[in-house]
């Protein structure tokens, strides 16, 4: 049977052979294929379990709401 007749059967046979002969390449392909799927499916699943994003870390230090005192000597 040629690969033109049933491409899915030949693809499955190829992947099965690669899983036995080159398992590192096979599993790298599988993990690489799962990544984009996880980007779409994981966030809604996390939200359904009640996950809430944490508060963002401040990127600046808030200055006090008072006049600044002049530092003299080693008063720090």
Describe it.
This protein has a domain at 7-48. Helices cover 54% and strands 0% of the residues. The protein has helices at residues 7-21, 23-48. By secondary structure, it is an all-alpha fold. Helix 1 (7-21) crosses helix 2 (23-48). It has two helices and no strands. The model has no long low-confidence stretch (mean pLDDT 84). Keywords: Membrane, Transmembrane, Transmembrane helix. InterPro entries: Nuo9.5. The chain crosses the membrane at residues 24-42. This is NADH-ubiquinone oxidoreductase 9.5 kDa subunit.
Indicate the topology.
Elements: H1 7-21, H2 23-48
Helix pairs in contact: 1-2
Protein name: NADH-ubiquinone oxidoreductase 9.5 kDa subunit
InterPro entries: Nuo9.5 (IPR039961)
Keywords: Membrane, Transmembrane, Transmembrane helix
Quick summary:
The chain is mostly helical and 76 residues long. It has helices spanning 7-21, 23-48.
H-E string = HH
Class based on secondary structure composition and strand pairing: mainly alpha
| Rounded Rg | 29 Å
Mean of the pLDDT scores? 84
Tell me the helix content. Answer: 40-55%
Discrete helix count: 2
Report the sheet with the most strands, covering strand number, pairing sense and barrel closure: none
State the low-pLDDT regions, or none.
none
Beta content: under 5%
Number of strands: 0
Oligomer: single chain
What form results from the Cα inertia axes?
Answer: elongated
Q: Termini separation (Å)?
A: 84 Å
């Amino acid at each position: 049977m040629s690969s033109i007749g049933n491409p899915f059967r030949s693809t499955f046979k190829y992947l099965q052979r690669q899983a036995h002969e080159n398992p590192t390449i096979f599993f790298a392909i599988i993990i690489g294929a799962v990544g984009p799927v996880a980007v779409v499916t994981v966030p809604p699943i996390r939200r359904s379990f009640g996950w809430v994003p944490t508060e963002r870390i401040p990127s600046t230090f808030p200055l006090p709401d008072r006049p600044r005192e002049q530092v003299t000597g080693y008063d720090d």
